[in-house]
Design a protein that fits this description.
Oligomer: single chain
CATH architecture of the largest domain: 2-Layer Sandwich
Bound molecules: phenylalanine
Radius of gyration: 37 Å
Shape: elongated
Largest sheet: 7 strands, mixed
Strand order of the largest sheet: 1-4-5-9-8-7-6
CATH topology of the largest domain: BirA Bifunctional Protein, domain 2
Number of helices: 12
Number of domains: 2
C-alpha cells in the first residue's frame, strides 16, 4: 500500500510538471483526486488494512493528496498568468481602446427644477424644509384655517387614509397631503419666527385624470415670517422665482384669490412667454395663471405658536409640475409619472 501511494505521488507530480494546458491539469486532477481517482480509491481501501497500519497509511495518503492538489493549484495559476500575458502582448490588442459605454442616467425634469430652485432660494437665505406625504388632517386643513365644514375642503379632492366611518372631524384623521402648505405649519412649529423656508414635494388629489390633472403632482411652498413683511416682499420673491425658472423676466400681475390660510390672497399671472397676441397655452388671454400666494393668515401663525401681533408673513404655492410643463412645452402632465424612458431621455442629463 505504502509503495502504491508513493508511486501515485511520483506519477501525479510528474504529470503536473509536464501539463501545458488547463485541460491537461483537469485530466490529472480527475484521474487521481476525482471520485474514481487512484488516491481516492486508496483512501477508500484503508478500511481493509489491519487496524494498526491504518493511521500511518491514512496519514500518508492524505499527504500525497495535499501535495498533488497543491502542485495542481500552483500550475493552474502559472498557466492562467501566462495565458493572460500572451493575450495582452498579442498582436491587435490595444489597451487604450475605450471599453463598452455604460448607459448614463439623468435627472427627472421635476427633480432638476427642484434642485435649481432650491439653490436659488438658498442663495436668498431660505432654508429647505420637508414634511410627510401622509399627513394629519389637522396640519393639512385645520391649522391652515380650513375647519371640517369649510367649503374649501371640497376643492381639495382628498385621498383619505382614515376610512370615512372612522373620521371624527377632530383633526386626528390621516390624509395624503393635498398641498405642501402643511409644511408651513410644521416649519413654524419647529423653527419659530423669524423664518424663511421653501418646501418642495409631492402632493395628492383624487382627480379625474386628463392632460392637466394628475393624482400625484409637485408643488413648492414658500414661507417668510418676520416683522413687517408685506405684499411687496412677496411680489419680489415671486418675480425672482419666475425669472429663475423661465430664464428671463416676465411681466406679472396680481389678482385677488381666495385661500383660507392667507389674507389677503392673490393669484399671480405672468405674460404668456409663447406669444404676442394669444395662443393655445394662454387660451388667447396673453396671461398665464402661475402661482397663488398671500399674507399668512393670523390664525395660521397663532396655531403654530407665533405671535401674530408681532410677526407677519407671506406664503406662495408654486405648482412645480405646471411650471416644468411651461418651461419645456410639455403638453400632458401625465408624462411625469409615466416612467416613459422616451419622455425622460429628452431632458439634459
Ligand atoms: N396650498 C394652495 C393649494 O395648493 C396654494 C397656496 C399656497 C395658496 C400658499 C396660497 C399660499 O391650492
Amino acid at each position: 500500500m505504502r509503495e502504491r501511494l508513493e508511486e501515485l505521488r511520483g506519477e501525479g507530480l510528474a504529470a503536473v510538471e509536464v501539463a501545458s494546458t488547463e485541460d491537461d491539469l483537469r485530466e490529472v486532477e480527475v484521474g487521481l483526486l476525482g471520485r474514481k481517482g487512484g488516491i481516492t480509491a486508496a483512501l477508500k481501501a484503508l478500511g481493509k488494512l489491519p487496524p494498526e497500519e491504518r493511521p500511518l497509511i491514512g496519514q500518508l495518503a492524505n499527504e500525497v493528496k495535499v501535495a498533488i492538489q497543491g502542485a495542481i493549484d500552483v500550475k493552474r495559476s502559472t498557466l492562467g498568468q501566462a495565458a493572460l500575458s500572451a493575450e495582452l502582448s498579442g498582436e491587435g490588442f490595444d489597451a487604450t481602446l475605450p471599453g463598452p459605454a455604460l448607459p448614463g442616467g439623468g435627472q427627472h425634469p421635476i427633480q432638476a427644477i427642484t434642485r435649481e430652485l432650491e439653490d436659488l432660494f438658498l442663495s436668498m437665505g431660505f432654508r429647505i424644509a420637508d414634511g410627510p406625504e401622509v399627513e394629519l388632517e389637522e396640519n393639512n386643513f385645520d391649522a391652515l384655517n380650513i375647519p371640517t365644514d369649510h367649503p374649501a375642503r371640497e376643492s381639495h379632492d382628498t385621498i383619505w387614509i382614515t376610512p370615512e366611518s372612522q373620521r371624527q372631524g377632530d383633526g386626528r384623521g390621516v390624509v395624503l397631503r393635498t398641498h405642501t402648505s402643511p409644511v408651513q405649519v410644521r416649519a413654524l412649529r419647529e423653527y419659530g419666527a423669524p423664518l424663511r423656508v421653501v418646501a418642495p414635494g409631492r402632493v395628492f388629489r383624487q382627480e379625474a385624470l386628463d392632460a392637466t390633472h394628475e393624482h400625484t403632482f409637485h408643488q413648492m411652498e414658500g414661507l417668510v415670517v418676520d416683522k413687517g413683511v408685506g405684499v411687496g416682499h412677496m411680489l419680489h420673491a415671486m418675480n425672482t422665482l419666475i425669472e429663475g425658472v423661465m430664464g428671463r423676466k416676465l411681466e406679472t400681475r396680481l389678482r385677488p384669490g381666495f385661500f383660507p390660510f392667507v389674507e389677503p390672497g392673490f393669484e399671480l399671472d405672468a405674460r404668456c412667454p409663447f406669444c404676442q397676441d394669444g395662443c393655445s397655452v394662454c387660451k388667447g388671454s396673453r396671461w398665464i395663471e402661475l402661482m397663488p400666494g398671500g399674507l399668512v393668515h393670523p390664525h395660521v401663525l397663532e396655531s403654530a405658536g407665533v405671535d401674530s401681533s408681532e410677526y407677519s408673513g407671506y406664503a406662495f404655492g408654486l405648482g412645480l409640475s405646471r411650471i416644468v410643463m411651461l418651461r419645456y412645452g410639455i403638453d400632458d402632465i401625465r408624462w411625469f409619472m409615466s416612467g416613459s424612458l422616451d419622455f425622460l431621455r429628452q431632458f439634459p442629463a
